[in-house]
Structure prediction request, 369 residues.
Amino acid sequence: MRCAYFDAELCRSCAWMGQPYDDQLAAKQAHVEALLGAGPQWLPPLPSPESGYRNKAKMVVTGSASEPTLGILDAAGHGVDLRECGLYPPSLQAAFPVLAAFVAHANIAPYDIAGRTGELKNLLVTLSPDGELMVRFVLRSQEPVTRIRKHLPALLDALPSLRVASVNLLPDHKAVLEGEREILLTSDETLRMRVNGIDLHLRAQSFFQTNTPVAAALYRQATEWVAGIAPATVWDLYCGVGGFALHVAAPGRDVVGIETSVEAIASARLSAHGMDGVRFEAADATAFALAHEAPDLVIVNPPRRGIGAQLAGYLDASSTAHVVYSSCNAESLARDLVLMPSLRPVRAQLLDMFPQTTHYEVLTLLERV
Prediction:
């Protein structure tokens, strides 16, 4: 894949841009095997489309209300417009000029970092497999909300795929993506992410994997492993919107999903409506585990830091026979595996969630020795 932004040195976010994709995949496989060793049976790495794979755009808004820039900040803090970034599919790219025109129409001044003035910090846009959109306006204050509500019908007419719109308030002057408070602007509260025939309902502050086709493959592989083991009880720790839990649910199986995000748990509960044997709780994964007897099988899908020593120690000493570990950081996974010597990696697969970068997902099945 070639990228004009990368070649012009306007954006270097994709460190491996321009490298042959087969070489990227081979390098990632070599990296994860060096970390985890040759012990597990390695399935062939799962490739991704090289371009157009991102289902979410996190666009920093700079410039002026009449001519907003949607993209990133360069090293000097200046805005770089990335509306034609090749990582976004055409349907997502097509939404950017419409949203930029709306910013101008509603007269929402972009936030000026140096002067600490203005309102609109980021635009967060998520695309569902059905082509529907969620748009979130990250603002410094509520000052523009009335104008956004006033002009929202025009945006809905111009962007008929828009299903969920909200305002996120980020009053603090710091380099984070969003704040804690969300103001819903539409009657629809969730974006339906249809994955492997399962409807996952995504609320504004809920996490979902960046690459939908690879996420679908990730869930399918985990489901295949779990089906072969046939556990009666399962935990899905760090469950997010419940992707793993909902995929491995089966008649007679008790599945519990645990996630700290109240919004994610609300999404998961909506997705699980009418399903028997599946429940979700908003709680800390480690605290929940320490307070309960371990199930037959545990799924963990932690953030980049991994599950940590306390949870790893609990799993190592527990009676659980299998762990399915989905990791976006093989280095923290390797550290966690050292802390669980009684659980041996028996199968593993690299899934390339992030082409053109050094990042990837790895799914590992652990079995008690």
